[in-house]
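Supplementary Note 2. Why include the ligand at all?

Several targets in our set were suspected to adopt different conformations when bound, so apo predictions alone were not considered sufficient. For every target with a known small-molecule partner we therefore ran a joint prediction. The input for adenosine-5'-diphosphate is given below.
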Amino acid sequence: MTSFASLVREANLINGQWVAADSGETIDVTDPASGTTIATVPNAGQAETKRAIEAAHEAFPAYAGLTLSERVALMRKLHDAIQDNLEPMAQMLTAEQGKPLAEARAEVGSSAAYVLWFAEEARRTNGATIPSPIAGRKLMTTRHPVGVVAAITPWNFPSSMLARKLGPALAAGCTAVVKPATATPLSGLVWGHLAEECGFPSGVVNVLTGSARAIGGEITSNPKVRKITFTGSTEIGKQLLAEAAGTVKRMSMELGGNAPFIVFDDADLDKAVDGAIIAKFRNAGQTCICTNRLFVQAGIYDRFVAAFADRVASLKVAPGAEEGSEQGPLVDDAALSKIEELVADALAKGGDLVTGGSRHDRGGLFYQPTVIGNATVSMRVTDEEIFGPIAPVYRFDSEDEAIQAANDTNYGLASYAFTTDLGRAFRLQDRLEYGLIGINEVLIVAPEIPFGGLKESGLGKEGSWQGIDDYLETKYTCIGGL
Ligand code: ADP
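The joint prediction is reproduced in C-alpha cell form.
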C-alpha cells in the first residue's frame, strides 16, 4: 500500500460515473525512477470523449446558473480538499512524474492557491455601463461563461497546469472535459475524485485518459466544445489550432520556450549561480520556463562557469521520493535519448564538457547534470527546447549582442537576467521579447501574475486578473426606447 493509494483512480470520470474504456484496454502508469508499474488507467478514445462532452454540455446550464456564492463555496471546498490531501497528492505526483518531493509539494500547494485565487476572481467578473451617444438608450456589457471547456495538460506539471485551467473554468461557470497526459494521468484523475467529493454536480468535471489523437480529434471537432485550453509542445499546439479552426473555438495555448539566462559583468555572482541552478535544474530541466541558453558576459564568464559547474556537480541525483533529492529521473526513454543526442551534437561542434555529459551511475532514466562551455549558435541546443539537465553557456561582449541573441528564437515565454545596473534592468524590460522577465529573480510564477508567452510560445494568459477572461464571453446589450 502506498501512502496515496486511496487517491488513485484507475477509471475515467464521465457524467459522475467511474468507467473503464469501451474497449476494456488499459495503459500502464510507471514510476520513472524505478520503471515499475504503479497503476493502470483506461485507454479511452473517441466514443468516450463524445459522451464526456455531451455530459459537460448537459451539465452546463444548471452549473452556470448557480449563484455566485454557491460556486465560490464549491471552489473554496476544492481548495481545502487539495490542501488536506497535499502530502499524498505530492507523493503520487512524484511517483508518476519523478520530480523531487519538495518540488511536488510546492506544485500541489500552488494548485490549491490557483483554485482559491480564481474563486476570488469570480467575484470580480464585472461588466460595464457605456455612456450612450443616442438619447433614450442604455448600453451595457455582461459577462457569461463560454460553455464546455476542454483542458489538455502535459506530464511535467500534471497538477498545477490543470489548476490554472480548471480553476478559472469552474470559477467562471464553465463545465470541463479534462485530458491529462498519458504519462501522468493519476494527478489529473484525482481532480475528478476531489471535485466529486466537494459536491460539484455530475458532468461538471469529466476526466479521460487514453489516445491523445482520438480524444484530441473529438475535442477539436465537436461543436459543443467552446474552448480548448492546452499546455504542451508548440508542435501539438499548432496542430490543435489548425484542427479547431473548423468550429472556431476559443483557444488558450501555453507552448514551448527557449529561455535565455543572461549574466552581466556587474551581476552578483552568487545570486546568479543560485538562480541558474533553480532556473535550469528544477524538474530535471523539464519545464517550459527552464533556462535553455545561458549567456555570460566575457568579464565574468570564467568565474561564473567555475562556480556554476561546482554547484551543478554537487547536485544530488536521486529518486524524487528520496530525502534531499535535487534532480530526479527524466520522464522516459525518448527524453533520455534526446538529451544524449543534444550533448553529442554540442560536443561535436566544439563545446567544452565542463561537468556531466553521461547517463548517471544510478542507471535507468537518470542523467548527470551537465554544463557545456563555449556554446555556439550552430548547436541544436540553441534552437531546440532541451527539456533536460543540460546547461549550454555562451560567451558575449555587449548588452546589445546579448539581447539580440536572446531574442533570436521563435519562442517568447520566460527570460532571466542578472545585473545590478538599474538602467539596464529597465532596458531589458523594454527589449526582451518575452512574456515573463525575471531580473535577479527566477522563481517568478504565482497565481497573481499573468503567465503566458509571446511569439510561438502561446496565446492568452493564465493566472492573474486576466486568467479568467478567456473563460468568459462579453455580451453587449442596448436597451432602447427609454
Ligand atoms: P509534451 O512535450 O508535454 O509531452 P505534448 O504536446 O506532446 O507535449 O503533449 C501535451 C498534451 O497534449 C498531452 O496531454 C498529450 O497527450 C496531448 N496531445 C498530444 N498529441 C495530441 C493530439 N494530437 N491531440 C490532442 N492532444 C494531444
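Residues 152-155, 179, 181-182, 212-213, 216, 232-233, 236, 239-240 surround adenosine-5'-diphosphate (CB under 6 Å). The longest strand covers residues 138-145. Comparable summaries for the other entries are listed in the accompanying table.
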